[in-house]
Amino acid sequence: MLQYIRDQLDTIEEGIKQSWVDVQSAVGLLDYLSYMASEGATSKSSPSDESIDELFTIFDDVRRTAVNITDTILNFIGTRAVFWDMRDSLLFSLYRTSVESARMEIFIPTIEQVLDQVCDLIVDVLRDRVVLRVFQACMEGFIWVLLDGGPSRAFLETDVNLMKDDLAILKDLFIAEGQGLPSDVIEKEAKLAQQILDLYVLKADIIIDLLMKASEHMSHHLEPAAARRRNVHDIHTLLRVLCHKKDNGASTFLKIQYHLPRSSDYDDVPVKDAPSKVPIFSDMLNRGASFNWSETGQQSFRIMKKKLQEASWQ
């Protein structure tokens, strides 16, 4: 987060510096054009078309820089509001230990307070844009809780309905009974979160099958997280769902294939007894030690295994 803040501030600073250079150039060119215009009154000389075009180009550059700086500031405000100002009161607390004891409704007053503070600082013409960015950041934070929230988040299938209700509560807050953001915009921004919640409803063996299929199409070299857009069907998302799914089948699969410690707090199932205690694995383990995956799939999984083992959980 600190690096993100530094990057955003650097972007704003460079944009302001360039705009100042452009404005100084424009002032000098205006002085020149004024001089040429005054001379033209007595000597028939006039400013060249090239000089006038250059002046318009300078002001277009200043305008584009101003627009880009505005976008950067709005993105910064939304991201900081959720991932910095509300990191303790929302991100680190939502669903921690259990879903039922840390529902979204507990944190709605905090989100409302932050929205009020942000809107007080922004001119009315930018209100909807900054509120949208805050909602987008809330969705990013919600997805972070679902997929990267650490071992304190382990979800049962019965938790999913509660989380879907919480997502609806959050959407309603930003729609504000028609006074806030348009409902179609809200639905579009919340689509990925809804799809991830739908994954949690699926049985572990179905998610594992999806994971195996996704591995067949995965590049041998994983792209950095910042260089790709998260997709509900990609291997990264499916693996994280398994890691947070409070299910013996999911946990046993992760222990067998990735040698990962279980992230949930249910009773441990010895790996050697997995086929007899977890029915879905009886068929899978009979396919062979590699689950009969292709070389492409195995190599992709080996890369992901290394990444997961290097990752530090919260």
From TrEMBL:
Top-level taxon in the UniProt lineage: Eukaryota
InterPro entries the record matches: Munc13_dom-2 (IPR014772), PATROL1_C (IPR057984), unc-13_homologue (IPR008528)
Residue ranges constituting the MHD2 domain according to the UniProt record: 101-211
Protein name from the UniProt record: MHD2 domain-containing protein
Taxonomic placement: Eukaryota, Viridiplantae, Streptophyta, Embryophyta, Tracheophyta
